[in-house]
User: What shape does this take?
Amino acid sequence: MTSTTNETHWITQAQKGDKQAFRYLVDAYYPFVFNLAFRYLGNQADAEDVVQEACVKWWRHFAQFKHQAKLSTWLYALTLRTCMDYTKTASYKKRKRQQPETHAMQIASTETPAKMLEANELAERFKKAAETLSEKQKTVFVLKDLQDFTTEETMQISGQTEEQIKSNLFHARKQVSMYMKMMYQTPEL
Amino acid sequence: MKAQHVEEEIWNWFELTEADKERVLLHCAACETCKDLLEEVQHYASQIETLQRAEFTPGHQAQAVQKIMEAINHSDKQVDLNISFLSRWLLVPFQVAAMVLILFAGQELFSVEESKNNQLPKYSKASLLNTSALLKNNLNRKKERKISIRELIEKKLKK
Assistant: This one.
C-alpha cells in the first residue's frame, strides 16, 4: 500500500471510532500542527495547550471531514480557529500580562550556534512585531510568510478571499517591517 | 500607476506574476523611492526565510500525544455522562409523555369509531317539540304586537 492509501485507511478507521488509528494520525500530524500553533502564539506552553484542544475537537468532529479536502488543510484550519479562540480567553491574556518574557521562542534546528542565536533573536523580534497586527493580518502573515503556504492553501485555511489576503499581507508586511526597523534602532524595545 | 497601488505590489512582490514583476521593475528604474522599497522588501524576505527554515520541534512528542489521548478519553467519558444524564432526566419523562399522548389519541379514535357505530339522531324528540313550541309562541307574539300597534295608531289618529 502507498502512504496515501495507508493514510486514507487510518482516516476511515479513525472516523469509525478506532482510537488506535486516531493515535497514529495524531502522531503523524503533531509536528505540523504544533509548528503552526507555536508560530501563531509564540510560546511552547500555549502551543501545547492549543494543540491538545484542537486534537479533542478533531476527534469529536472527525465525521465532518470529507475526503475531498486534504486532512492537513482541514487540520490547519481547525488549529488556527482554536488559536484565535485561545487568544481571546482571559487565562491567555492574564498569562501574557504576568509573564511576557518567560516563554521565548527557541529555535534549535539551525546550522551553527551563532546562527541559532541570530535566528532566536530574529524570531523574538518578529513575535513582538506580529503582536501589533490585527487578527486577520496576523493569520495571513503566519500562514503565508512564516509557514510558507501558497495563496490557495491560505485561502482554504483562513477562509479569506484572494483580495483580502493580498490586502492583509501588504499591511502586515509593512507594519512588521516598520516595527523591526524601529526595534533595530532602539534595541532595548 | 498610483503610488499606493505600486507600494502594495512591491510588498506583495513574491505573489506577483512574471509580467507584473517586469512592469514594477520598469517603474522602479525610474523611481528612487520605489527602488529603495523593493530593496527593503528583499531584506524582509531574507529575514523571513531564516525563520521559515527554523522548525519548532516539540520537546516530548510522545508524552504530548499521550496527554492528548487521555484528554480524548476524558472528553468521551464526559459525553457519555451527559448522555446518561439526558436519558435519565429528559428522555424518560419524554417517553412517559409520548405514551400518554399515544393513549389519548387511541382513546379518541376509539370513541369516534363507537359514535359512528351507534348513529344517534341529531336532535331528540323533546328538543324538537320545545323548538316548535318556541317558534309558535314567537309568531303569536308578533301577530299580537302588530295588531296592538295598528290599534294604537288608529286610536291616536282618531284622537
